[in-house]
Every structure is written in C-alpha cells, then in structure tokens.
Amino acid sequence: MDADAIREYIRRRPFEPFVIRMSSGETHEVHHPECIAMGKTRVYVSYPDEERLVCCVLLHITSVESLQSA
C-alpha cells in the first residue's frame, strides 16, 4: 500500500472515517484524524476508548476504504 494514499484519507476535509484492511484479514477503523499516525514503514491506529494502539506495517495493508462505502 502506498503511504500517500493513506495520507490523502487523513487530510480530507471534512474528515471522512475510513477502514484499513490488512493481509491477515484484520480491519482497523479510523474515526478521527488524531487517532492515526504515519511512520516511514508503519501506520499506528489508536483506539482511545479501549486504551489500545495498533501498529500496521505498510507492506501488509491491502486496502484503505471509506467507511461509508465499506
């Protein structure tokens, strides 16, 4: 997955929630732009209500889609 494609979702205004799909079948929903951080090779998704942080390696992200169309 191209990091620029994920950055495009993060920068959309107004922000539109999206889902990250992993090669393992896991999905991670991003409901707010402050709940995601980009590194060089990883994406970090925060779940504040659960006090959980997930690390997603870019090589294992298969797609990113808007939640409205998911």
Topology of helices and strands:
Blueprint: H1 3-11, E1 18-22, E2 27-30, E3 36-38, E4 42-47, E5 52-57, E6 61-66
Report on the architecture of this protein.
- The chain is 13% helix and 43% strand.
- It has 70 residues and is mainly beta.
- It has one domain (3-66): SH3 type barrels.
- The strands form two sheets. Strands 2-1-6 form a three-stranded antiparallel sheet, covered by helices on one side.
- The longest helix is centred in the N-terminal third of the chain and has 9 residues, at 3-11.
Radius of gyration: 11 Å
Number of strands: 6
Q: Return the CATH class.
A: Mainly Beta
Shape: globular
Number of helices: 1
- Name the helix and strand elements from N-terminus to C-terminus, one letter apiece: HEEEEEE
Named CATH topology: SH3 type barrels
Oligomer: single chain
Q: Please indicate the percent range of residues in DSSP E strands (runs of 2 or more).
A: 35-45%
Order of strands, main sheet, comes to 2-1-6
The class by helix and strand makeup works out as mainly beta
Distance between the termini: 18 Å
Mean pLDDT metric: 94
* CATH architecture tag: Roll
Approximate helicity band: 10-25%
Brief summary of the model shown:
The protein is mainly β and 70 residues long. It has one helix spanning 3-11; strands at residues 18-22, 27-30, 36-38, 42-47, 52-57, 61-66.
Name the descriptors.
70 residues, 3-stranded antiparallel sheet, SH3 type barrels, globular, 43% strand, mainly beta, 1 helix, 6 strands
